[in-house]
Design brief:
It is a single chain. With 136 residues, the chain is α/β, with parallel strands linked by helices. The strands form two sheets. The protein has a five-stranded mixed sheet, sandwiched between helices. Strands 3-2-7 form a three-stranded antiparallel sheet. The radius of gyration is 14 Å and the shape is globular.
């Protein structure tokens, strides 16, 4: 199980990282430790990858990668301190507008941030790693 944080500032910009391993823009996040609650894992992963501490608000979506069998939970968060920095897992940290999200991110990652903004969740979606699957 993986978790990710959709960190929303008061001005509506969202925190994103450029991954060191793939060079793609995504939400900060990763795999839960065995003993962690999902909200703890989100806080830890966001801090590790960006240097930002967060308050976890709510679950906004559950996303299944059908090609890899991975399920990711995304939580909307508020920044609560820290200083932006890169890490071994991120080569850049930025605050993106919704328009920049759709320009920089692949469809399967952009939708996670956009879903977190719409207030209509939690959303449940699946994808093949590249494109969203249509609901049956």
């Amino acid at each position: 199980m993986s978790v990710a944080g959709a960190v929303v500032r008061e001005d509506g910009r969202l925190l994103a990282i450029r991954r060191a391993d793939k060079g793609t823009w995504e939400l900060p996040g990763g795999v839960l430790e065995l003993e962690e609650f999902p909200e703890q894992g989100v806080s830890r992963e966001v801090w590790e990858e960006t240097g930002i501490h967060v308050e976890v608000d709510e679950l906004t979506g559950v996303y299944k990668n059908t090609a890899r069998g991975i399920v990711a939970m995304v939580f909307r968060c508020k920044p609560s301190g820290g200083t932006e920095r890169t890490s071994a897992e991120s080569t850049a940290v930025d605050r993106l507008t919704p328009e920049q999200i759709t320009e920089r991110m692949s469809e399967v990652y952009a939708i996670r941030l956009l879903d977190a903004l719409d207030g209509a969740g939690p959303h449940v979606r699946s994808h093949d790693g590249r494109r969203l699957n249509k609901a049956p």
